[in-house]
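Input:
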Amino acid sequence: MTHAAALWLSSPAEQLKLKSWDTEDGLAVAYNVRTGDTHLIEDMALQLLGLIRLSPLSVEALAQQLASFFVEHDDEIIQEYVFASLMQLKDIGLVTDVAH
Amino acid sequence: MKISELPRIELANLLHRGELLLKLPPFVTRLKTNVPSLIRDFAVMYADFEVSSIDAFADFHVEIASEPGLWRWLKPQVRFFFDGRPSFIPLPTVQAFAMLEWGLNWCVAAHSHQYLIIHAAVLEKNGKAAILPAPPGSGKSTLCAGLVMRGWRLLSDELALYDMTTGEIFGMSRPINLKNRSIGIIKQFAPDAVLTDSVPDTTKGTVALLRPPTQSAVRVREPVRASWIVLPKYTPNMLPLLEPHSKARTFMLIAEQSFNYDIHGENGFEAVGNLVDQCACYQYTYSQLDDAVRTFEELCSGKIT
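Output:
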């Protein structure tokens, strides 16, 4: 599945606990209730999880909403970065992708 | 009654019969041993701790016994028993007291899941407490010993017992385990420090244990609420540097340094989050104990925020 053909959704709230602080490094921690694992995540990942918590979104939609995070203005590069972040989150079981 | 108030012969008899119940709040440990060197070290190291009545409930039943048979004469060894069952491999008799301490650590870490058990030192002064979580080699015990010898109350050198409901931390105030170069550093830094003989060739190198100050033992029942989490980092020839440390990274370190974080699941996640919330988090690089004492005094007096 290419990233253009997928919608992304985070784990349900009862399965994913997030903790963040208003600190410069923007780092946060995420607890996967299903696996019992705790993960250190970056600001971008935290924002992504917040955006797809309530309803699934495509990479394109996410890239648009997060554009202000990037110095880079090339949509394709931003989408690739968002996709790579989503794949990392998928690897640790915090998000899932479904066919569009 | 305190250990130091027991005549030595009575202490030895109680230990021989397994009738010595040592108060290590929040626990009580029943001890039994027939090892003379252990009785001697125990009497000195736990002099200021109280005993419970013989019919009190004991959380842990611990025995350190000489290995029987010919080996007793050729290569004397001792073995640790927990609830009457042999645990761990035997060690040379000269390591008996260190074995008791390591064994007690195991008893607590493996069985006391009513607490989140963090591998960390905990110190208190003027009602404010610092947690010093750290992997081996970071200089945690040396720093802890140095601060304790300059008036900080020792709660723990190894195990911070975090009550996840109240946010209070207990520590048992047990002897500080010094290793290798730290032993000489503390002897020089605090000539009045009371240590066991240095024991070479243990799995941790040469070790010696430092007796907790009387005031720490007397106040062993008093838990603390932490104000700071300080990650010590001993670096030779470095000027002291106290820097704010990422809250999220501190969270991960506390989780990694907890013996039973995984057991507590979501409650553990919430508890560590609450602990990190309530504390200012720092990394402290140091090479001299005098510098460290100054830095922690400034922290305590509010000169550093």
